[in-house]
Specification:
The complex is a heterodimer of chains A (about 240) and B (about 290). Chain A has about 240 residues and is α/β, with parallel strands linked by helices. Helices cover about 40% and strands about 25% of the residues of chain A. Classes of the chains: A alpha/beta (about 240), B mainly alpha (about 290). Chain A: One of its GO terms (cellular component) is membrane.
């Protein structure tokens, strides 16, 4: 269980995280919806240990993560850009986290080959990132992040730069692998549909404050999330299409 | 735009392209090719003050004396050691002094040596490392040697310490700034965050990501700087050994001797060196392209 209590972060007078608290059971995905600049990225980076907090505590399975450095925290932050290592092949990019952990070569080979199959990138194993499409690069970045089964996966609008088709395919891939590997994740997005699709639990963030909902219905019912507006838009459009003479 | 207008515009563009290519050939290719052909003709006895018609005699003399091969080997040794040391030092500065380089405080110390000409750098090394130089006097003053002659030969020495040092001092600032620019351009700061987040320490990142990325991206520049050192003249002339000569020094000596019959040999050495450099460039760039 991931437990976050009263996280606070400010840049001079501007508060970016304001008493953020949440609990997330293992194997569940928390979809965090919010507009640009609401503090979502800061929250994820703080969890990953890439930013220092002014106050608050982060616990995993009862163990404090506050003093644990980023490289030992096993909470992987997936950037908006794939940020693959440019001189390494797809295979070596995927193997990076395993090699860092000094896993046996046979294990590395077996896990990477399996991950390549999961990502449907077998034929691209020896290619360099510059020879891949945007969607393929994002898949490699995702595989590289989950291959060593981190405690928590922190996804910062990871599919925002993809076209609609690649995005839908990545969302399906994320859901399939999240279930298969029992991934605990915070999935930040500004798109209502994506949040509803990937989340087991739901939260909304605005001006550094995080509101976690008790259920999907409560999330949908809250007007500030914009879900109802979105639903109203689509049903109006559907009615127009249905009753057109 | 009308079809006629479009046709005229594309014709004008094509015409401008031809002129630009012609200007490039005139300014860049023609002087080099002309010089090479003239040197080749001179070395085969086809031109020059004492020309006697086509002969292979000058090339045979150059090969049989072994001077060209030994100076080429010496130049390669100096070039490889100097570029390796300068690269190692520059990598260290670029990787571990990122903040100082970004803020500009270290950059000023790096820009200054860039302004020093090779001749001045040669003199500087001579003044500092000769047996009667500054370091020798300091060491003598500290009582580490009994007299100034006890100071090791670091200038005009057979190992080329002075030449290597002067080249390292000249190359290091340039390479540091180059690596720093690549570090930023390749987004290595963010890649380090990614690497740390995946569980790697700084040294793992430096060994497996930063150094390979920097070296691979800078490879063409490193190769060109290596060739620049191979053909350097002023520094080896000032502080080089009497026994071993770098190629440029050997060639110029042949040109400037009183014996006019040596001049074709000077041209033969220059042409052979140029061909060697062209061969090195073509092989290296092919390899670099294959690994790109």
């Amino acid at each position: 269980m991931l437990t976050i209590q009263n996280l606070h972060k400010a840049y001079q007078t501007h508060t970016v995280l304001d008493q953020v608290s949440l609990e997330l059971p293992q194997g569940q995905v928390l979809a965090v919806l919010g507009r640009s600049g609401c503090g979502k990225t800061t929250l994820l980076k703080a969890l990953a240990g890439l930013l220092t907090l002014d106050a608050g505590s982060i616990n995993w399975a009862g163990e404090s993560m506050d003093a644990v450095p980023s490289r030992e925290r096993e909470m992987v932050y997936l950037f908006q850009e794939p940020l693959l290592f440019p001189h390494l092949s797809v295979f070596e990019n995927l193997a990076y986290g395993l090699r860092v952990r000094k896993e046996a070569e046979a294990q590395v080979q077996q896990k990477v080959v399996q991950m390549l199959q999961e990502l449907e990138l077998q034929e691209h194993a020896q290619k360099k990132p510059s020879h891949l499409s945007g969607g393929q690069r994002q898949r490699v970045a995702f595989g590289r992040a989950i291959i060593f089964l981190p405690r928590v996966l922190l996804l910062d609008e990871p599919f925002a730069s993809l076209d609609a088709q690649s995005r839908a395919s990545m969302q399906r891939l994320f859901l399939r692998l999240a279930r298969k590997y029992n991934i605990t994740a915070l999935f930040v997005t500004h798109e209502v549909k994506e949040a509803l699709l990937v989340g087991d639990r739901f939260a909304y963030m605005a001006a550094g404050k995080l509101q976690v909902y008790t259920s999907k219905d409560a999330f949908i019912a809250d007007p500030q999330t914009g879900v109802r507006d979105e639903l109203a838009f689509w049903s109006a459009l559907e009615q127009q299409t249905t009753y057109q003479p | 735009m009308t079809t006629l207008g479009q046709r005229l515009s594309s014709k004008t563009k094509a015409g401008a392209g031809v002129y630009l290519r012609a200007i490039f050939l005139l300014l860049a290719v023609l002087p080099v090719a002309g010089g090479l052909l003239y040197g080749l003709a001179y070395s085969f006895g086809l031109t020059g003050a004492l020309s006697t018609g086509f002969t292979l005699q000058h090339w045979q003399q150059v090969w049989s004396s072994g001077a060209l091969l030994s100076s080429l080997a010496y130049s390669l040794y100096i070039g490889l050691v100097a570029i390796a040391l300068a690269t190692a030092a520059a990598l260290f500065l670029a990787l571990y002094f990122q903040r100082s380089l970004r803020s500009g405080s270290l950059s000023y110390f790096l820009y200054l040596p860039l302004t020093i000409p090779a001749m001045v750098m040669g003199f500087l090394v001579f003044q500092l490392f000769t047996k009667s130089g500054l370091f020798s006097r300091v060491v003598y003053g500290l009582g580490w040697i009994d007299n100034l002659q006890g100071f090791p030969s670091l200038v005009h020495d057979t190992l080329g310490f002075g030449i290597i040092l002067a080249h390292v001092l000249m190359a290091m600032p340039f390479l540091t700034l180059l690596f720093h620019a690549i570090y930023r351009e390749q987004n290595l700061e963010q890649l380090q965050e990614v690497s740390a987040n995946l569980g790697a320490g700084k040294s793992y990142f430096v060994r497996h990501i930063a150094i390979p990325t920097l070296l691979k991206t800078a490879a063409p520049n490193l190769l060109l700087y290596f060739i620049f050192i191979l053909g350097s003249y002023e520094i080896p002339l000032l502080i080089g050994s009497q026994q071993h000569q770098m190629v440029s020094v050997l060639a110029v000596q042949k040109f400037q001797r009183f014996n006019l019959l040596d001049i074709p040999q000077g041209y033969a050495i220059s042409v052979a060196f140029t061909l060697f450099v062209l061969l090195l460039l073509s092989i290296s760039f092919k390899k670099l392209q294959r690994h790109a």
